[in-house]
Amino acid sequence: MVKKLIFLWMVVLALVFCAGPAWAGTLKGHWKLDTDPNMDPPPTDPNVLLMAVDELGLNHGRLINDPNWIPGVTDGTFALYFDGTNYVDMGYYPHEPNTPDLNMGTGDLSITAWVKFGTLAANGVVAGKGCLADDSGYGLIMLTTGQACFQARTKTAYREVYSNDTGGNWVGFVNDEQWHHVVGILEREQVNGARIYVDGVLQSCINSVADTTGWTHDISSDTARFCVGARHSDNMIPSQVIYWNFDGSVDDVQVYDYALTQENIDFLYANPGVPITVPTCGAWGYLPMDFDRNCYVDLADFAAFAGDWMKCTDPGDPTCSPAN
Fold this sequence. Notes:
By secondary structure, the protein is mostly beta strands. It has helices at 2-17, 262-270, 299-307; strands at residues 27-31, 51-52, 61-64, 68-71, 78-83, 87-89, 109-116, 124-129, 137-142, 148-153, 158-162, 180-186, 194-198, 201-202, 226-228, 231-232, 242-243, 247-256. It is built from three helices and 18 strands.
């Protein structure tokens, strides 16, 4: 009875005092990689076939060393195949070379891509900025073990998770030459704040390098470019400025400056090539209690709040877990 009364008072207080605005995140980059190499008639500008178009018009990528256009995830679409020597440089054209608008600072982020690969001779970066380097940034990486990896880092600190089942048995292999949808998320101040999803399923386990509680590091970089198919960093020795080239296929890369929800991820998995569109709730943005971001604080938000009532994630409490 006491818990019920406390619960009701908490709901009332939350609705009364938490009515301030909340910032809404945005899509920062979207490369469908959907150029038809067999255009008929051919494009008047041959550079069209050498460009990965950013649907936002901000950071078009230049194809370096001729990765091949191949059939994409869905019929009638296209993707890029990388052979371990080529990549796409989003700092090449048309704006500033080190893609500053793809820096994520001290905020949350999500990066998604469709990936297909087999046996790898070396780890390869699918997409990212400054990962696997003496630099700052984030990215999706495919490993020689057959796993997918998400990393967010500075020069001295990192958060990193791998595809595996939730029991830690390392069965999340994606090197089967089939298309897989991979999502990496960095959500600050969460015990399981670094997460990776494969085909809509959460893969990461709670561990020390997934915990973002107090992890306030700025992962921006002015020495790394956003690339697909490799990692770029001017901080490395000349032979490693471009490194960790990927041997496999990539389609539909998206970057967001907020943490996608499970509902968002399910949508992206079911709708290749279509980005998440966030409703605009006026110039003031979202209310903090608008958990589903539909511009209304309603019963659905109440249910989400009630569902997590009295759960805890305090590592210092031996009786505590996300389930109770």
